[in-house]
Amino acid sequence: EREQRAALELALAYDATLEGWARALELRDSETEGHSRRVAAMTDQLAIALGVPEDERVHIHRGALLHDIGKMAVPDGILLKPGALTEDEWKILRLHPSHAVELLSPIEYLKPALDIPAYHHERWDGTGYPNGLAAEDIPLAARIFAVADVWDALAHARPYRKAWSVVDVTRHLESLAGSHLDPHIAGVFLRLIREGKMDPEVGTERPEPVTLLVIDGSEGSLLLVRRWLERDGYRVITAQAGDAAIDLAEQEQPALIVLDATGPETESLQVCNRIKAARATAHVPVLLLTGVRLDAETTGRYRADEVLEKPVAPTALKSAVRRLLDGRAVSAR
């Protein structure tokens, strides 16, 4: 339990630090406020749809948050210039992917996340920078990110132009498929948009917070998971198991329940199955967090909608929560 909590705290500290760096860059360049969180969230959703494994998505999320960190080395006179850049100024600006590699490569845990900061300006047809890579020579993470980046840049207003309509951004993305963008990835993204399975505003403040219930026998882990989810705008209520958890679920009617099963199997199994058996809560998705790998028989005894093995990275937890909430929304239509 102590080791798992330490791993959770470390992962939270990592992600909080990265979000702080991304926010610092946005404070310097106020035109792009909120862009990093939005585009990181869309990249997460697209990676899930493409079947990217969970352990790789953690690094993709970190790389997306830090995609423009190299601009920290670009002078204000160029980065914040209100008019058109000269050719020499463009040359300096286009060095920011290389600056990102210089900044991040000495940090061991960020080395697997470098593909997006280093290659997100490469193009499918080989006309991008800094290396002129083409097609599948461009790392997958960078190709996924590029699609979300174009969408977000055009769908949000800038001081020098209005936000484009969904129709116009969609047409533009279609025109870039096969030239600037990986045509397969662009097609999957646009399909998700059309089917209402991609939320371009994920990562921004929610006007009406969704209520989640977190059930965990460990107060330390309970507070950690609560902090993770509250930072994404959810309203989080907590219980430490037993009858109190069941009563709270029935009273509050949360949109989703996160249940930790690290403790005695009989107790967590009973809570999960009571939630699923009760008429008032049977419809509520349950995300089970377990400290051990469950065999098929044990997994079948739990009536959970999804199972994650601890220690769980914040990115993996948040993705699973979004996935289950999105699934509930679709089934309610």
Which helices and strands appear, and what pairs or packs with what?
Blueprint: H1 2-28, H2 35-49, H3 54-65, H4 76-79, H5 87-93, H6 96-104, H7 115-119, H8 140-155, H9 166-176, H10 183-194, E1 211-215, H11 219-230, E2 235-239, H12 242-252, E3 256-260, H13 265-277, E4 286-290, H14 296-301, E5 306-309, H15 314-332
Parallel strand pairs: 1-2, 1-3, 3-4, 4-5
Class by SSE composition = alpha/beta
| CATH topology name of the largest domain | Hypothetical protein af1432
Amount of helix: 40-55%
Q: Indicate the radius of gyration in whole angstroms.
A: 21 Å
Alpha-carbon distance between the termini? 41 Å
Q: What sequence of helices (H) and strands (E) makes up the elements?
A: HHHHHHHHHHEHEHEHEHEH
Mean pLDDT: 83
Specify the CATH architecture of the largest domain: Orthogonal Bundle
Quick one: CATH class of the largest domain? Answer: Mainly Alpha
CATH superfamily of the largest domain: Hypothetical protein af1432
Low-confidence stretches are: 203-207, 329-333
Give the tally of β-strands: 5
Strand content range: 5-15%
Largest sheet: 5 strands, parallel
How many helical elements? 15
How many domain units? 2
Q: What is the 3D shape? A: elongated
